[in-house]
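hey can u check if this looks right to u? its 233 residues, i copy pasted from the old doc so theres a chance i mangled smth
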Amino acid sequence: MSILGRVADLLQAKTHALLNKLEDPNETLDLSYEKMISGLQETKQHLAEVVTEQKLLERQMDQARQEAEQAQDNARLAIQSSREDLAREALSQRQTALEKQQTLTKAHDNITAQVDKLVSYQKTLESRIEQFRTQKEVMKSSYAAAHAQVKVTESLTGVGDHLSHVGDTMRRAEDKVAGMQAKADAMDGLLKAGVLNDPLDRRTSVEKELDTLRKTSTIDAELEKLKAELGKA
């Protein structure tokens, strides 16, 4: 594959990814529904125009029929008046009117078939639009619920923006607490070992040890005294 071909494929892939990211299913469904409604309105408009032509042909057919009947009456009147020439002319007019009526009838039959097809198409389109509208609302509700669930899950797991740094903050806090506890334990050990001195305690380390021994001895004596009292009791 040439370099230009690879670049074209890469641009196409990037474009598709960007469009998928920008595309909102709700807006796409609403747009499709609006297009279907627009198509239905156009169908109704075409149907109205065809029906108008149908009614016009019916009027012309009725007019031709009346002309043929009038020409027939004129021919009878001419015969009764011994005017064969007028009768012949009237019969010619009747024949012309009948031919016109026949032509209009054929056109009317054709346009009636078109009207029937448009009516059937309109009913089918209306049924499909209603089905699509129901499915559209169901899909929009499902998408809204799924979108909300994703947002909640992202917040709980820290994947989203709200809690994305909470885990790092907690780990840093735990490290600081552990370090502070270790430092406190170390200083307490140094204080007990006599490495660190209390600035308010001016005793030497020997004096501290002696005080500790005296305190321990006093506690032991008190303990033996309690045991002896309990033994006598």
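The chain has two domains: 3-157, 166-232.
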